[in-house]
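Appendix B, Record 12. Input sequence as logged:
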Amino acid sequence: MNIMDFNVKKLAADAGTFLSRAVQFTEEKLGQAEKTELDAHLENLLSKAECTKIWTEKIMKQTEVLLQPNPNARIEEFVYEKLDRKAPSRVNNPELLGQYMIDAGTEFGPGTAYGNALIKCGETQKRIGTADRELIQTSALNFLTPLRNFIEGDYKTIAKERKLLQNKRLDLDAAKTRLKKAKAAEARASSEQELRITQSEFDRQAEITRLLLEGISSTHAHHLRCLNDFVEAQMTYYAQCYQYMLDLQKQLGSFPSNYHCNNNQTSTPAPSASSNVIGSSALTSTSGLVMTSPSNLTDLKECGGSRKARVLYDYDAANSSELSLLADEVITVFSVVGMDSDWLMGERGNQKGRVPITYLELLN
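Logged structural output:
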């Protein structure tokens, strides 16, 4: 027998098997043939595997949406993944917003309260963007990848073996049908031999499928560990964001309520004679940020002397005419004729420069 004859006979046998299975399947659907039922344990395992597959896909896809809301970016990442290439790094939304704020603050002037606030907000947004990037990378590695491996690996194997089990059952039931229809002794003997073979193949395939399906419990245990990793990554991310925003809120709360506008107009605060603490009267704005108003400095300005003052918050000098400050340090301050009412001259050793009064507390 040459190879061509063998291939022809094999194709004919395969066609006959396919036709037999199709006839058996159709007759079962029409209620004209009996169907071998799987045992209850195997049916439960099959149901559990299918349920696991469906919900794993839903959780995986929605997690991808959560981590990357941009559908075009997700498609691009999917294409690069299929091409086994690394997707190009792109600036995320918090980082982009942060850069816009920093650029705006720089143009408005770091020495103005609004410009300084924009820069600080921008720096915080960029830190959040970095934390967001770390969350995506950690979640993809420790959570999404194991889920995807199950869908594209383990479950595909289960589905393949399940299909083989279905075919073996159809072969078995078709053999049973042929045995029932066999009249002659020779035909019955041949049908009985065929039934024994198909029954053996069905039992063997059922055992293989059962062993694979029992691994679903191990899959659940593995996915539980991955879920814990995902929760931990989210917890770290939200804790970082909370701390960043808490620090930012403290910095913004130290800014004065009246400041140099971009057109160099100055809003003069109403004096308060009830306290010598600069910036001690707290006002709450409608935005929820805590603002401060300067106290009456008439005594210091009139006497022309100097006073000791404690620094309330860190301050970075915007130019060489200003003095950088560190929280809790004590410096000497005095008034200079013609200087803006929101500023004093500060002195620390050999260093001297303008300092904002809302960052200071006068000492007796």
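The first helix runs from residue 3 to 29.
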